[in-house]
């Protein structure tokens, strides 16, 4: 397939002006601000690097910051997100399964940096679990896609009906069913249905909510809550009831 029309979706810049670093009295705070400022620079450099690569290719690319994107994505052959998993997930909310997406992790975590500052602050950068590329291998991955040497992987998403009406957005990560106020209890009943047939009895719960995740979402909030990581291409779902409230 020929892919000529590309959409470049960017995570916005976080503003940490360098001149403010000198005004911070605490040494530790200066380190944190310097770290955040460096993250912004790394992200900006990754964007510029990827845009320069695209200028050398026989493609037409359009650039949009994710904060400016609110309408469904169409009339493109490939979406490239530059940021982290959040940017890719936002793109997935506005596109159907006919458009592939390439996630570029613009600011990968550096293990040596995490260890160096472990006693001072959390120096974790972007996990980028869903991102297949970084600036280091972006051109090679792009060439493989444009020259049809690479096929996209198909990840499962969750379709949701609300009051028997389908919601237009399918969830790539997970769905949380809960009271709008996190401190309030949610009372609900549910059962598992497979191939149109019930495979469990009706389960009743009064808790902080119900989370259902895809394989792609199994490494995010689900894993933090005590779930397990699933193979990324699995079509199975995982669910977990929240904290019981009596």
From TrEMBL:
Membrane spanning stretches: none
Pfam families: NAD_kinase
Annotated GO biological process: NAD+ metabolic process; NADP+ biosynthetic process
Keyword vocabulary terms for this entry: Kinase, NAD, NADP, Transferase
SUPFAM superfamilies named among the record's database cross-references: NAD kinase/diacylglycerol kinase-like
GO molecular function: NAD+ kinase activity
Family: Belongs to the NAD kinase family.
Record's protein name: NADH kinase
